[in-house]
Amino acid sequence: MLLLRKVTLAMPEGLTPGELLVVDGKIADFGSSLGNPDGAEIIEPEGAILCPGLVDMRASLGEPGYEYRETIASAAQAAAFGGITSIAVLPDSRPAIDDPALVRLIASRGEETGSFSLIPYAAATRGCAGEELAEYGLLKAAGAVAFTDGRRAIFSPRLMRRALSYASGFGSRIVQHPEDAELAEGGAATEGARATIMGLPGIPAAAEAICVARDIRLAELTGGAVHFAHVTTGEACDLIRRAKDKGLRVTCDTAPPYFDLNETAIGDFRTYAKFSPPLRADEDRLAILAALADGTIDAIASDHQPRDADDKRLPFAEASAGGAGLATLLAVTLAQVQAGTLGMAAALALLTEKPAKWLGIEAGVLRRGAPADLCLFHPERSWRVEAGKLPGKAQNTPFDGRALEGRVIGTWKAGKRVFG
Amino acid sequence: MTNRHLLGIQGFSPPAILQLLDLAENYVLLNRSGKTQRDTLRGRTMINLFFEDSTRTRTSFELAGKRLGADVINMSVSTSSVSKGETLLDTAATLNAMNCDLLVVRHNQSGAPALLAQKVEASVINAGDGTHEHPTQALLDALTIRRNKGRIEGLTIAICGDIAHSRVARSNFLLLTMMGNQVRLVGPPTLMPAGIETLGVSVHHDMREGLAGADIVMALRLQKERMTKGGLIPSSREFFAFYGLNAEKLAYAKPDALVMHPGPMNRGVEIDSAVADDPARSVIREQVEMGVAVRMAVLDSLARGGL
Question: How many CB atoms lie within 10 A of CB A290?
Answer without folding.
Answer: 14
